Amino acid sequence: MTENNPSFTVIVPAAGVGKRMLADRPKQYLKIGHKTVLEHTLEKLISHPRITRIIVALDPQDPYFDELPISQADWITRVDGGKERADSVLAGLTALDSHSWVAVHDAARPCVSLSDLDKLFRLFENNQGGGILAMPVKDTMKRAQSEDSKRVSNTVDRDGLWHALTPQFFPLAQLRQALSEALEQNVTITDEASAMEWAGWPVNLVEGSERNIKITRPDDLTLATFYISQEELTCE
C-alpha cells in the first residue's frame, strides 16, 4: 500500500460475555456452520484488500481463542481486553503506533460487507473527519417509562435517527485521546463515536447494509447463519 492508498488496522473488542444469548460460552464463540462467529468476522475483515492487521482484545482468562486455527494467523495480534468495551479498544489502540487511521468492529458482526467497508474507508480520502457505518431508523420508536418497564412513556420522533453499526473509523491519535480522556473523567462511552462526539470531533454517518447485524439474541444467530449461507452460495 502507498501513502495515498494506505492499509488499515482493525481492532476487534472480544472480551465480552454476551449474557443475553443465554449460551454456555460468549456469543463470539458460538458456531455458524463449522466456524465460530469470531472466525467468520475476522476472515471477512482480512479479506478486504486494505485491511492488513487485526488486533483482537480478549479477556485475559479467555479459554477459547487459542483453540481456534485462526489464532495462529500472522496478521492477528492478541491483547488483553478490559472490563468495558472502551477499555478493550483503548488497549488495542495502545498497541498501535504507526497507523494514521484505525477501524473498530464488533466481534459479533460477521455479516459486514466489503462494499460497506469500501464506503467507510473513503472517509480517509475526503478529509472530512471519521465516521461510522449506520442505518436510518425505519420503525416507529417508543420510549419506555424506565429501563425495566414494559409500559410506553412516549413516541420518539424518528426523523434524523440512525442505528449505529460498525466498523467505526477514525484518526488513531484523535480516537486514542478521546477515549483516554473520557475514561479519566468517567464519561459513559457506548461506542467509539460517542467518545469522539464528547471530545468535539466530527462523526460522519455512512449508510450501510441492514445485513450487518450484531448477534445479541438467539434469533440473531439464526439470521446471521442465513446471510452467511447465502453469501457462500453466491461465491460458489
TrEMBL record:
The record marks 20, 27 as: Transition state stabilizer. The record marks 158, 214 as: Positions MEP for the nucleophilic attack. One of its GO terms (molecular function) is 2-C-methyl-D-erythritol 4-phosphate cytidylyltransferase activity. GO terms for biological process: isopentenyl diphosphate biosynthetic process, methylerythritol 4-phosphate pathway. It comes from the Bacteria. InterPro entries: IspD (IPR001228), IspD/TarI (IPR034683), IspD/TarI_cytidylyltransf_bact (IPR050088), Nucleotide-diphossugar_trans (IPR029044). This is 2-C-methyl-D-erythritol 4-phosphate cytidylyltransferase. It comes from Aliiglaciecola lipolytica E3.
